[in-house]
Amino acid sequence: MNKITVVGAGLAGVEAAWQIAKAGVAVELCEMKPEKRSPAHKADGFAELVCSNSLKASRIESAAGLLKAEMREFGSLCMQAADACAVAAGGALAVDRDRFSQIITEKILAHPLITVRRGEVTDIPAGVCILAVGPLASDAIAQKIEQLCGGRLSFFDAAAPIVSAESLDRDCTFTQSRYDRGGEEDYINCPMNKAEYEAFYQALVSAERADTHAFDERHDVYEGCMPIEAMAIRGEDTMRYGPLKPVGLRDPRTGHRPWAVLQLRRENAECTLFNLVGFQTNLKFSEQKRVFSLIPALKNAEFVRYGVMHRNTFINSPQLLEADYSFRAKPELFFAGQITGVEGYMESASSGILAGVNAVRRLRGEESLVLSRETMMGALADYMSHSESRDFQPMGANFGILPPLPEKIRDKKARYGALAARGLSALRAQLSAEQMTP
Questions:
Q1: What are the angstrom distances between the C-alpha of 154 and each of 8, 30, 142, 143, 216?
Q2: What was the pLDDT predicted at 224?
Q3: How many Cβ atoms from other residues are within 10 Å of residue 299's Cβ?
Q4: Is 400 within the bounds of a domain?
Q5: How far apart are CA 381 and CA 370, in angstroms?
Q6: Residue 93: how many CB atoms within 10 A of its CB?
């Protein structure tokens, strides 16, 4: 069968279909709209932006900017559309969302190798296939994916914030496992004295929470993972008997047990990212930055991912996927978009690009394209397929997932510029060696 099926015409699905068609292979793009919609989707067009119209920072010295620059190297359909309908947004790339969708829809419908099939897909198609069904997959296909993956898919995503290790104030931390169980470097401890804790508590209980969409309203949202702000409301000392308990720890600076301790657990092998243990939260992002920065060790913290609590659907990718986004147990099947655990518009689109490129290679019996971890697209794919986190959660583009530079650069802007230059150079060299052009 000289055809590849793509299920879902969101950002990941259209990018996958575009890459496949560019390679001269026929595509069947399946989209359930307008016959059936998820609760979040309103329009009939492809690549609908259901939340913000911002595609994040444009400057190459940012993680989001590097990702978009890499996508342009592949001739990204979403980047073509975004550049054609950009609106003023300071240093960000924002778009006219209706025009963005219209441009992409028209290009997809006009391509002679892309056939669009409307209607819900209720089973996983045979042959080489890409599932880009999004975080609100229909119940029928979600059940099939669940059976395939052997685990629950549709649930309320409860993720704690992640901070970069280099942004921590190490003068206000110490490393120790509780009761010295495990390795000494397993956790970074962020102690608070009584006054610091009380100031943090007062800010937390009065902080503004994020809105909850109607389709997120369920009674079991917080079962087993209560948000830290909800725990705080139960009483001033509740957190000190929960995630901020100081028992089994001794601050070497004082020789005594702290009043309260936030523990940070490493998120990757390089120890460049740490998550705030037990800090699942539904606070607005700006409030997370304001309130959590009151903890002395986090006063200058760089949050590479904020905490979220909302309905989400994603597979346990590190257990299931390769770095080419193929399913380990069924190599002709690929996943793309938020269902893999990438978080963000362009992150989803970039995974669709790689899934599309590699689906063609699988069809032709060729070796997969696995990008260098020095590239943002490669680092994201590697995180999805090899994350060592005990509790895999979605991740967006950030410099913390890239391998560190061999030399120390203290200035953050210069360091990020060097990381971006290295990543873009690595990508261009790899694409040149593969004789791939936009």
A1: 17, 21, 8, 9, 11
A2: 45
A3: 13
A4: yes
A5: 8
A6: 21
Which residue in this structure is represented by tokens 């005594």? 256
pLDDT given for residue 169 in this prediction: 96
- pTM score, two decimals? 0.75
111 and 29 in a single domain? The answer is yes
Answer yes or no: is 438 within a domain.
no
Residues of the chain predicted below pLDDT 70: 1, 38-42, 152-158, 181-186, 211-225, 269, 310-312
Of 51, 267, 313, the residue nearest 161 (C-alpha): 267
Position 35, amino acid: E
3-state SS class at 93: strand
Domain match, 84 and 120 both: yes
Which residue type sits at 26? A
What local confidence, expressed as pLDDT, does residue 160 receive? 85
Residue 110 buriedness (CB in 10 A; 0-12 / 13-18 / 19+): exposed
Residue with tokens 């924002």: 94
Report the Cα–Cα distance between both ends of the chain, in Å, rounded: 26
Q: Give the tokens for residue 220.
A: 């079991």
Question: What's residue 428's pLDDT?
Answer: 97
